[in-house]
Amino acid sequence: MLTETKGMMFILSSPSGAGKTTLTKKIAENNKDLAISISHTTRKPRPNEVNGQDYNFVSLEKFNDLIRGNDFYEYAKIFDNYYGTLKKTVNDLLSEGKDVLFDIDWQGTQQLKKIDNLSIVTIFILPPDIKVLRNRLLNRHKGHEQLIEERMNKFNEEVSHWNEYNYVVINDDLNKCYDKILKIIVSEKKGIKINQDSSEIKNKIKELTK
Question: What is the CATH number of the domain that holds 184?
Fold first, then answer.
């Protein structure tokens, strides 16, 4: 069980296909004190995605209205679609005593880190290797080769932001990666930082981006 400390925000970021959404859902399902911040997006739902559960799917016009109303904590354009975190959603969860999980990219993370009085812990997730990443993208976007190449081409740019995060974990095994992230969350809730082997992380980054 997590401790009683309230109001922390845990951000999971990764290159497309590295597993942050799967991990975010797994963590929330198994830890009732943690709730997912469900982003607004202008992209179309994928098969099996549910409005209000996976994302809040909205029109570009509606999204722009929310920007003009200063309703987002953060928003970003990613692969031709917009994604944003609604302030009210997050504030309501925090007021209920929940800690909030974010499945967002480095752009949104940078914006949230600039806001005063938010207790934020950031975690960057890496794939074990490029082949695994490509296979995950192939499974998700079958028949959309151009889309897959766009995401692969964006990989190095996304990974270049790894050192802006408090922690970096490698998703070489879903359950082991889950355990590592949960250990980080539990420790941070107690006010304890976990030391990581920076040389191991740097070597993995070199291997992935060579």
Answer: 3.40.50.300
Cβ count near 18 (within 10 Å): 27
Which of 171, 177, 176 has its CA nearest to residue 136? 171
- Side chain identity at 21, as an amino acid letter? T
Pairwise CA distance, residues 157 & 82, whole Å: 18
* Domain of residue 141, residue span: 8-37+99-209
The C-alpha atoms of residue 92 and residue 24 are separated, in whole angstroms, by 19
Is position 55 within any domain? Answer: no
Closest listed residue to residue 197, CA positions, set 180, 178, 175: 180
pLDDT digits (tens, 9 = 90+) for 51-91: 999 999 999 999 999 999 999 999 999 888 999 999 999 99
pLDDT over 60 (residue 111): yes
Tokens 């949960």 identify what position?
182
- β-partners of residue 77 are 82
pLDDT confidence of 139, banded at 50, 70, 90?
Answer: confident
Q: What's the domain count of the chain?
A: 1
